[in-house]
Amino acid sequence: PITGSVTCFDCPLGAYSYGAGASEGLACPKGSFSDDIGASACAPCPRGGVCGVEGAASVRQTFEECRAGTFNPDEGATNSTSCQQCPPGTYLKDGDSSCTPCAVGSFNPSQGASECRECTPGFYCAKEGMSEGTPCPPGRYLDEYSQTECRACGAGRYPAMEGEVRCDMCAKGKYLNAPGSSDATDCRVCE
Question: Which of 6, 55, 158, 191 is the most exposed place for a label (fewest CB within 10 A)?
Answer without folding.
Answer: 191
